[in-house]
What does this fold into?
Amino acid sequence: MSGALARLGLALAWLFQWLPLPLQSLLGGWLGRLLHASAGQRRRIATTNVALCLPELDAHARSALVREHFVWLGRSLLERALLWYAPRARLERLIRVEGDVHLAERSTRPVMWLVPHFLGLDAAGTATQLFQTRQVCSIYAKQSSAVIDAALRAGRLRFGRAEIFARTERALPLVRAIKRGSAFFNLSDMDFGLRDAAFVPFFGVPAATLLAPSRMARSLDMIVQPVVGELLPHGAGYRIRFLEPWTDWPTDDPEADAARMNRWIESEIRRSPAQYLWVHKRFKTRPPGAAPVY
It folds into this structure.
């Protein structure tokens, strides 16, 4: 994408975020339906993932779930402008926080927020800066467009309580931020290959799963608190659930911890299956001798 086109898109996004959220939601749903019709590769990836993870669904139910997923996906893409640009007071009205959002503030130990890739995760990241005072650090995927990358960083850092590191950077700056007192907003459920990962069941399918969350939590004596972000229907806003911290995680067995993490994510997906990020190639990395699934 050219810089001029990216800047035009960002200008339109800034204008779009002033619309009432129910109207944004409606337009985002239309975008999602357009993407479902036109983005054949991503539709096939989502269909494959749903078939592998939820085999109890018949073909009609799988197709319906994928269509619904794209509606939520379209919403999440368009509403990102709201999270990047809307006034703080408006976001505080739209984001509903449940559970102990203040755990990191009180804790004398570092805190890891374990945040799976539901479509409300950007709203969850915003919530950690709006509703508690602890500094936040996280990792992000650097964008190929310098203009979009700068806008993404500015949008996620605009409240002055966060720092983010590109996934391609070394881990040392992140560890230093945690040791300085930042809570770690950790998105750990994607396939990044087998570096510091193992094949662990995800809905019964071997999935390359990071061992780093367990190892980091153990080495830094971190408290691990799961967090789930959810988009509410009809433009009603967002629900961010700060769940009870895990008392039996990490252990001295990173693979067992990864399996426990995956089982928890499975349970959350069953609560809200259409809002999980099915368009990601979760099973891109395959065990030796296994056929590709995409």
In short: The radius of gyration is 19 Å. The longest helix spans residues 59-78. The chain is about 50% helix and 15% strand. Residues 286 and 292 are 7 Å apart (CA to CA).
